[in-house]
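Why show two proteins at once? Because comparison is the fastest way to build intuition. When a single record is shown, students tend to memorize it. When two are placed side by side, the eye starts asking what differs. So, the first record is below.
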Amino acid sequence: MHPPVLFLDIDGVLIAFPEGEPTAPQFTPQCVEALKVVIAAVPRLQIVFSTTWRLGEHVNRLHSEWLAHRLPIAITRDGTPDTREDPSVPRIHRRGREIEAWLAAHPGVSRWAVIDDDRLAIEPILSATRCVFTDPARGMDTGHAERLIAILC
């Protein structure tokens, strides 16, 4: 049986930005603590990054922040495919289509969930029962963590 997978966005999930767009690209400690609740509660959890932080120049920053907050590297599996150059994927639905493509390439994964702050990019594509949406001004909290645990366990 494949381990459960959490598709993780960063901006608006692990980085709250109450004043609009984030000015300092640093994880928000209380959001990280909520993620740690999920990690502790879901055995064999694997993280698949669905964030733009998985791409190019952002990868080093993602790695640095992940380590700075003592998040376990061993659970990071990979990232969703990058469809930015694919004209058949509308920009508004890109995130949902990238997650859908990852799942199609890994048909054995049956337990999965998404946490993101962009409902429009995901909800029309993926089952809403597997998605948890955050308010980007506050990011992830323990209520989101509890919903993810219920989906993944």
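Second record. Ask yourself what differs from the first in the token line.
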Amino acid sequence: MNSLLQEALMGTRHISHAAIVRQKDGAIKAKSPNFALSPTDLQKIEAAFEHPRDVRSADNGIVFLDTPYRAVRADSMSVYAKNYVRRSQDKSGVIISKTSQHYIIAAYDPTMYASVAVEAVEKLGEAPPSKCIRRSRLKLIALPKADYFRKKSK
């Protein structure tokens, strides 16, 4: 799963830290270097998915890697949060996607594009279980080169 994490998320260069965590027991199945998730962080993530409305309120949020984040979107399948520090030019954030068995957690820095990070996390979360998340043996599919899709001139 580490290769999946590296290729699908870290390979975008728009995610600074990421992990795949099993929901059942909180085991970290794959992670980027310097990623740390405490049991309290995992409980907050679980609570965010159980009560998404509470996470979106002004008084609550998520603390991830010692940085407070406020949710800008939260539902039963994903949580998007931005840095909570007021008057800060820091535009970092965290994206958490829930699959049938795992949480996909990714953080991005101010120099990175949030839209690219969101797309990478959501694509990985929507991938068919046989391709990546439910099995430990990965089956990555190679996409055809861009030239394949171009119309051939006559």
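One difference worth noting in the second protein: Helices lie at 2-8, 39-50, 52-56, 114-126.
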